[in-house]
Amino acid sequence: MDLNVQLKKQRRKWHLVSLSLFAVLIILVLIAAAVGSVKLSLREVWHVFQSKILGVESGNEAAQTIVWQLRLPRILLAAFVGAALSGAGVALQGLFRNSLVDPYILGLSSGAAFGAALAVVLKLSWLIPAFAFLGGIFATALAYTLAQERGRVPVMRLLLSGVATSSFLSALVSILMLKSQNNLQTIFLWLMGSFSGRSWPELFLVLPYMAAGLITILLQLRELNLLLLGEEAAGQLGMEVERAKRLLLLGAAMAAAASVAGSGTIAFVGLVVPHLVRLLTGSDHRFLFPLSLLTGAIFLVLADTIARTIMAPVELPVGIITSLVGAPFFLYLLRAGGNK
Amino acid sequence: MTVIFNVQGLTFAYDKAAILEDLHLEIGKGVFLGIIGPNGSGKSTLLRLLSKALAPLGGVIEFKGTFLDRWQRAELAKQLAVMGQESPQGLDLTASQVVLLGRAPHQSRFGSESSRDLQVVEECMRITHTWDYAFRPFYQLSGGEQQRVMLARALAQEPEVLLLDEPTAHLDLNYQLEFFSLIKYLVAQGKLTAIAVLHDLNLAASFCDQLVLLSEGSVLAAGAPEEVLTAELIEKAYGVKVQVGANPLTGRPQLSPLPLAKEKRSLRVHVIGGGGAAAKLYYPLVQAGFTVTTGVLNQGDTDWQIAKNLGLELVEIPAFSPISQAAHEENLALIKKAQAVVLAAVPFGPGNLENLKAASSIDKQALFLLSDRPLSERDYTGGIASKLYEELMGRGQVVTEEELFALLREQSAADEESMR
Questions:
Q1: Is B152 domain-assigned?
Q2: Contact present, A292 and A87 (Cβ < 8 Å)
Q3: CA of B65: how far to CAs of A235, A236, B7, B71, in Å?
Q4: B377 in a domain, yes or no?
Q5: Are residues B302 and B415 in the same domain?
Q6: How far is CA A152 from CA A139, A155, A221, B70, in A?
Q7: Residue B73: which of A1, A230, A240 has the nearest Cβ?
């Protein structure tokens, strides 16, 4: 037995898995760009990519519009939202040392929903993403501030104040929905989460925040590993615990709030994906985090493709698919893993 | 002596009630120091303050000449490691990954493990005997195995000072001894200063160079085990009377709690013993609340030793000498004062035949003859003892130990009833 050999073997294995998942994601994006109300062949999709990226003439204007203007930005948004929610899930599950935590636990989803509903009621529908983002960040900050005690934020208090904040804001959302019966469907659809009609502007609007959030988490992976031993032990290993907690929370809130701004509140991804990947990789966040990003992206691209094709021409909210497909699959894996 | 920790006027409270109050303590380099004291005396709190997991409310802690709050955590972690009471639950890492976390203070943020890191991890796992399961998931290990992995993790920090909070709570006796032997060895090699909160006073006595006895949040005594583990100090701290003897193997102090009578009974019991036959009776008799006297015993006899330790009123004669007339009469006087007389299964020879005769002096007292061994097996008087014994059997009851205690309790209850 050689520790060095073992560690190298492990690292090589996860690099290989990451590369394979990345390849799967690329192929999935191409396939997703081909399917829809207008069926295109993979060759046609490939030609569009060639012409857009390499400047090769393709001639098929309709295919170009469908792939490049309608499908690709939406698919990419789904991929980034999936990655952001999963990454935020990894950070928060690690922070709370609880694998039942999801990115919405700290009132983020209700805060975002409140922001979005407010925008709808104020007839500022084009500002929904901005309102949702700010609402989500505001709710998380509120929960964090309320949980503070002598300069520290005990995670148990944070969870409880998150639940309370969440419940309070949900009540406000209900009031707003009752107040504006005629906008009920807009708000409701937004609450279910959907990528319908999203294009490049939406993608570029939220991408910087997701990226900033995920990079913030990426810089704290070592801290997440130390936190596995408990906060006190992590501090005794030289870690500035409260600072790391703040950064992790900030990163997760940014990534998740940007996701919600881009697509509404999509359930289940941020809870399930980290959980599933952990069954595979164990708790070492240096592997868990990147693999969760890729898996989350794949999962949501797949779910969105199903959402827009399964009952075409009607589109389902993607949140329905993530719960409907994700939950049984999750249970199956849990049981299979339990029998190991 | 180089001072590692200098604690002055330390005060701490979680809420309002003070846990530590004006605590002063100096800890030298290269010792194995045990912190002992009853529950709630502030042992663990002191350890957490020393590790900077808590901040003092008042007073100062100096670590290697610098105030603890001036130490960067990252720097502190290179010199000070802590092993807590509990192991983390459900940790989905292999044992070696856990130990590798102990290298964190020596690693840069993004650097991967250096060959030195791996070397230290392997070494620490070998000396703690955890290398055999280096690649097994931590959560699958037994409590004892997990605790040894946690020790390996603390040692992997290559600390100068190791703080331990009841580190062997989940370990079997053999691993406890192995654990402390390892710590003691590392300390003796000059590699480590160890400061451990310990519950087991005898364990503390046999392994620690120095002890600190805490009571109600301050230091009651500090020094070598012999200076700290005295009957007086232990009673003051724990409210328990103990007998301090010497460990038969190490010569270090060894504590045995004295019997704590739950209720006082008025009954006075005289035990005729000798040859180790009555040894096992004294402790439970005292514990049951009876006033116990005994005689005549040879000095150095097991019965004599235990009766002495328990502080019983007794009649003694020099070792190997026969019972003198004076001793016999003293014995009779004690029997006269008692309400019950117990004749243990003593072997009788010409030297102690007087003890058997003393038993026949009973008047109103109840007489109990213990039936452990038939007299024929322990009669070295050529039949004289047997004859006397037969006569006694008519006057008293032959009983087992269990029956003896039941009957004594009954008699005691009846006596108390009639006195009312």
A1: no
A2: yes
A3: 21, 19, 11, 11
A4: yes
A5: yes
A6: 19, 9, 21, 19
A7: A240
Considering the domain boundaries, does residue B134 fall inside one? no
Tell me which of B257, B286, B313 is where a domain ends.
Answer: B257
Phi then psi for residue B247, to 5 deg, are -60, 130
Lookup result for tokens 């002055």? B8
The structure's pTM equals 0.83
Q: Check which CATH number belongs to the domain holding B282 and give it.
A: 3.40.50.720
Distances (CA, A) of A218 to A234, A255, A257: 18, 12, 17
Chain B residues touching A12 at Cβ < 8 A? none
Is residue B207 in a domain? yes
Q: By residue range, what is the domain housing residue B370?
A: 268-419
Rg of chain A in Å (alpha carbons): 21
Q: Nearest by CB to A284, which of B51, B74, B93?
A: B93
Contact B404, B290 (CB under 8 A): no
Residue of A nearest to B94 (CA): A282
Is the same domain home to B306 and B408? yes
Interior/surface letters A221-257, b for 16+ CB within 10 angstroms, e for the rest: bbbbbbbbbbbebbbbbbbebeebbebbbbbbbbbbb
Q: B230 — contact with chain A (CB < 8 Å)?
A: no
**Distance (Å, rounded) from C-alpha B420 to C-alpha A102?**
72
Does B91 reach chain A within 8 Å, measured CB to CB? yes
Q: Are B128 and B152 in contact (CB under 8 A)?
A: yes
Give the integer Cα–Cα distance in Å for A90 and A277: 10
Least-confidence region, from A244-258, A259-273, B321-335 = A259-273
Using a CB–CB cutoff of 8 Å, tell me whether B156 touches chain A: no
Q: What is the residue whose two structure tokens read 């008699």?
A: B411
On the 0-12 / 13-18 / 19+ scale of CB atoms within 10 A, A112 is buried
Which DSSP state fits B268?
Answer: E
**pLDDT (tens digit per residue) in B165-216:** 988 877 888 888 889 999 999 999 988 999 999 988 988 999 999 999 999 8
**Tens of pLDDT, residues B217-239:** 899 999 999 999 998 999 999 88
Within an 8 Å CB–CB cutoff, is residue B88 touching chain A?
yes
Amino acid (1-letter code) at residue A101: V
B164 and B232 in a common domain: yes
Q: DSSP character for B129?
A: T
Tell me if chain A has a CB within 8 Å of the CB of B92: yes
